[in-house]
Amino acid sequence: MSEIRAGSFTIEELENVQITIGSIVGAIEKKAEDEGEMGPTPKPGIVDIREWDHKLLNRYEPVYTPMCDQCCYCTFGTCDLTGNKEGACGINMAAHQAREFLLRVITGAAAHAGHGRHLLHHLIKTHGADHPIDVGPTNIKAPVIQTVTGIKPETLGDLEPVLDYVEEQLTQLLATIHAGQEGAAIDFESKALHGGMIDHVGMEVSDIAQISCLGMPKADPEAPLAEIGMGTIDSKKPVLLCIGHNVAGVTYIMDYMDEHDLTDKIELAGLCCTAIDMTRYNMDAGGTPTAKIVGSLAKELKYIRSGIPDVIVVDEQCVRADVLQEAQALSIPVICTNEKIMYGLPNRSNDNVDDIINDLLSGREAGALVLDFDKIGELAPRLVMEIAPIRKAKGITALPTDEKFKELTNKCVHCLACEMACPMNLPISDAMTAAADGDLTPFEILHDKCIACGRCEQECPKDIDIVNVIEKASQKVIREEKGMMRAGRGQVSDPEIREEGVNLVLGTTPGIVAMVGCSNYPDGTKDLYDIAKEMLKRSYIVVVSGCTAMDLGMYKNEEGKTLYEEFSGSFLKGNLINVGSCVSNSHITATTIKVAAIFAQRNVTGNFEEIADYVTNRVGAVGIAWGAYSQKAASIGTGCTRLGIPVILGPHGSKYRRALIGKPYDSHKWSVFDARNGEEMAIPPAPDFLISTVDNAEEIMPILAKSCMRPTDNNMGRMIKLTHYIELSEKYLGVMPDDWHKFIRTETDLPLARRKDLLKILETEHGWEIDWKKKKILSGPTMKFDVSAQPTNFKRLCKEA
Amino acid sequence: MADEFPFEISPMFEGERVRKDGMYVELAGPKSKGFELVKAVGMDEIEDGKFTLIGPDLSEMEEGSRHPIAMIYRVAGELVEPDLEAIVERRNHDFQNYIQGVMHLNQRYDIWIRVSKDAVKKGLNSFEQVAKATMMLFKNELPFIEKIETTYITDLAEAEKELEAAMESYKIRDERTRNLHDEDVDVFYGCTLCQSFAPTNVCVVTPDRISLCGAINWFDGRAAAKVDPEGPQFAIEKGEVIDAVGGEYSGVNDLAKSLSNGEYDRIKIHSFFEFPHTSCGCFEVVGFYIPEVDGIGWVDRDFTATAPNGLPFSTMAGQTGGGKQIVGFLGIGINYFRSPKFIEADGGWERVVWMPKNLKDKVLVDIPEDIVDKIATEEDVTDLESLKAFLIGKDHPILERWVEEEEEEEEEAEEAIEDIAAAAPGMMQMPAQAMMAGAVAPMAMAGGSGGGVKVILKNAKVSIDRIIIKKSE
């Protein structure tokens, strides 16, 4: 046997030979080329979409907010880059900041792609490379993958070359971070945009693979509701807590529990996106998720400290680095299930499950690294059943007793060191005073705003465990933390988009607001609810994912209903849809691509630039990452911006170091070509940024409405969008926006209820000529209204070209 | 908002619901009587802005009570005509819902209105305020209304008296709509609203063909064209009749050419195969040619299984749309099934062989009686073979076409197929692929021996990516 080597050889005889042809790649590709289906940029490298990036960056210029004005990447440094100084390698401040941003983006993209690779390996092993991709009713199964790479995946195996491409691009991009590579800020920016686009490819691979194999809802508007909140967990039962983003291993736990009749006996709880995906698992045929969601990352330390979890299982991403120490202090064994997080624990993957249980039960080991999913499936439920009675009997918790609580609050010397350390500068000192006087309300308010990072505790000269104090004080509100979240539904189906088309055209749906990202909110979670509700009431489609999807489910209206219960879950005007976990964000960009494919029959295959051009000019979508904290949030947002979807970040977003801001007053930047004849045409200055930060929820409201305006709006669409822009500005900021007139092309663009008043203002304040008898605008607008105009940023897409 | 009113007026209140415990009064609705009516009148018959109330005003009504209401708007203007009444009337629903604290449901004699306690608390105490706001919105939105006068009736006897006249108006209007056909008018209307997403699509709206999205009928087009003749909805002079059955007109062709930016230059409004109407993408139903039986199947958005040709809605819908003229697939609105000219050029209903059960039920009354049982659904057939058997069993009129075809010269038939194939690459290619997949699968499964397919390898070079050698167990 060992004598067989690579090369040609002759087979003497064939007997019972079966030749299986997995895919006939050459033939299909050739056919696609013959029909002209393949666009100009399949699997683009760094340079291939650069022209588009430069166009975007010309209109939306990078603005840098250095967190640090030095560079310490190499031993030539540390180099001071202030005052137009160059570093030892010649790099300047702008380029270095852009490089820092690029690094954030590709780190985030790598997290998703690494997640996808792990998942795909696993699913191919369990389901086979020829397992079909099934994501629900759609003509384009993987819109982002097809647009970027030109590949139309039909099976799991088809996703492998896609990830190969992603990994190659990430390597090339990472290489440019090295000293002595790129020198121009603008090309670092272009590379960052490339990384963002690549991220959406990696995310799509991850999510469509798990949707296809793990029985997750397939574009299902009626995906079931799952319970969410610290108050929903039944702490009398053994509590098994899973933290992270990669649900692969957890599904084995769920299967084991199911097979051994443990589902009712164990409280299975999750934190972060693993929790979301636990409520999606095997829900494609309906049912009620048995797993419960504790919440987002901000709840992680709080929930561990409560002592309620009896066993913790971690996988990857957004898991605190000190989980093992925190858990150990409370005798909670930790099982690491993914090589990305191993906490220095011994690798027990090849050991007997009984032995591992014994070691953890006895406390000989604080945790175990187990990479074998079959073993994890058995280990975690058995362990939690055995350890829970012991832990509960002891009543282990980090939270202080009532007496201790009193003692701690009295111990505070009000030095304010904690408040200085707090990323939110929360008023801890005053809350301590109030609590000492018996008033817990200030701490209850802090409980929602606190992200439980624990930085305050490190600074306290009196060694007060401040997080524990906050949590102890908030027990009453925590018990009431009971909400609902609609389980992630996956993609938006083609039939839904077709049905919604008429609303998008007539403006009855004024836009699509995607609320994504993490839990680093400037002022607690309520803002999310307020923003979503305001936009839903105005018939915007609100799309959510990840941490935002979770936190949104924590609030209820007067009738005790969450937004998920109050608003339906279709891709329809005034509906609230949860696409799913972090990696499901790719379905948001995918939806805009589908719009181009469905309504304009644009060829999406390997045709990123043309699709991005379409989306930029026509699809009124805007993203909010109100609590963006992670590198992944940076890459997700950047992927949106390369498609021309503007993204608004909360105030902490400025720590990403850069924004992309347009200059509405610079009229020559707001001009495109009319594809009918190649002539230049003026467009409205909206959106006037691609990435920007906003200070508070009031400020964001009118910006959302304005960011949904697009050059191709017909008069009905523009009228409604403008109505909401003006109303939201008046409602939340108390003023008419100062630029509303810039969006008027014809009198029919004017908000219906105040047409007369606004015509008067246009005449008196802006000098426009009005025919009062016919109520028509005679002169004034800088843009013509012509619904048939075909704005494009590319001369090559024009008829004359 | 406009300061003269004690309430806000905004499209954001459209979805507002006034529930029982938040309701101050209920007007009309299932437990009372009422209607809304718009009448076109002469310029000197009315006084602009005048409001008359017959019966008690809002301030005289008890909290929690229920009353009848009739809302009559008389409109006048140089361009106002009876044909526009229905269009103006329908806007009453939208406009009253724009008013914060007012909920308006349904239309005509089915209206159901509630005013909220909150609105009354904020100062809404007279119907005059509602009427004035509605009149203002009418005039802003539809500038061809030069004068408007309103009467509301909350007195039961008076309202009932007027209801009879209103019913007569509705009846006349409905008859006019029903009896108005493409040949009765000189102008059609074009709609390019959806070019904001579908750059080359032009919808031709005729009395017998509602816009594909279902939102614009011929009367809507007429009203919009009067508001702004240069706007996205405009009149199309029919011009010469080129093909009366297929619905081809020189005026439509001229316009199609210019507005589609030269993408196409002929449209047959009621044709499936020849120069069919384009679509943007939001069609509710897609029709698909089934070459094996020479018939047309229709599948709607809500049907998630596959049609007899093995394809689901989303795949077939993906073949058309985007303002492109694609032969072999046609997107339509459900209402088009109700048109007397429904794919007249291709044989109308006699050409229809398959529909999902739900869709068929929806349009059941519009299907000619003699064919209704001959159209198969997913309950009758699952694939092309069973479809064929079903059609033969039911003696579907499509059978006559099969005979005709056989009689035709073979060459001609081939040519025709080639024509269709050339025009619809997507269509011909997909069934072929499906067939291929069907043929390959059994071969692989049967280990190369069964499935009726024989594979012979001659002078073959088999290159293998990887050989995995395992101990046999």
What does this 3D model show about the protein?
The complex is a heterodimer of chains A (801) and B (473). Chain A is an alpha/beta fold and 801 residues long. Chain A is built from 29 helices and 23 strands. Chain A has four domains: 39-213, Helicase, Ruva Protein, domain 3; 225-394, 3-Layer(aba) Sandwich (Rossmann fold), CATH 3.40.50.2030; 402-479, no CATH class; 486-779, 3-Layer(aba) Sandwich (Rossmann fold). The longest helix of chain A is centred in the N-terminal third of the chain and has 35 residues, at 93-127. With 473 residues, chain B is an alpha/beta fold. Chain B folds into three domains: 11-179, 2-Layer Sandwich (Bifunctional carbon monoxide dehydrogenase/acetyl-coa synthase(codh/acs), Chain M, domain 3), CATH 3.30.1650; 181-275, Ribonuclease HI, Chain A; 284-320 and 347-473, Bifunctional carbon monoxide dehydrogenase/acetyl-coa synthase(codh/acs), Chain M, domain 5. In chain B, 32% of the residues lie in helices and 17% in strands. Chain B has a four-stranded mixed β-sheet with strand order 4-1-7-6. In chain B, helix 1 (85-98) crosses helix 3 (127-141) and helix 12 packs across helix 13. Chains A and B meet through helix 20, helix 24, helix 28 and helix 29 of A and helix 3 and helix 7 of B.
List the helices and strands and how they pair.
The complex is a heterodimer of chains A (801) and B (473).
Chain A: H1 25-34, H2 50-59, E1 60-64, E2 70-71, E3 79-80, H3 93-127, H4 143-149, H5 159-175, H6 185-213, E4 225-228, E5 239-243, H7 248-259, E6 267-271, H8 273-280, E7 292-295, H9 300-305, E8 311-314, H10 323-329, E9 334-336, H11 353-361, E10 367-369, H12 373-394, H13 402-411, H14 417-421, H15 428-436, H16 441-449, H17 455-459, H18 466-473, H19 475-479, E11 483-486, H20 494-506, E12 512-515, H21 526-537, E13 541-545, H22 546-552, H23 563-566, E14 576-580, H24 586-600, H25 608-618, E15 621-625, H26 631-642, E16 647-649, E17 658-662, E18 671-674, E19 680-682, E20 689-693, H27 697-707, H28 715-733, H29 755-766, E21 769-771, E22 776-779, E23 791-792
Parallel strand pairs in A: 5-6, 5-8, 6-7, 8-9, 9-10, 12-13, 12-15, 13-14, 15-16, 16-20
Antiparallel strand pairs in A: 1-17, 2-3, 4-11, 17-20, 18-19, 18-23, 21-22
Helix pairs in contact in A: 2-6, 3-5, 3-6, 3-26, 5-6, 6-26, 7-12, 11-12, 13-15, 15-16, 16-18, 20-24, 24-25, 27-28
Chain B: E1 23-28, E2 34-40, E3 51-54, E4 65-67, E5 69-76, H1 85-98, E6 102-105, E7 112-116, H2 117-121, H3 127-141, E8 147-153, H4 156-179, E9 187-191, E10 203-205, H5 218-227, E11 233-237, E12 241-243, E13 248-249, H6 250-259, E14 285-290, E15 295-300, H7 313-317, E16 329-332, E17 352-354, H8 357-362, H9 369-372, H10 384-394, H11 398-407, H12 410-423, H13 425-445
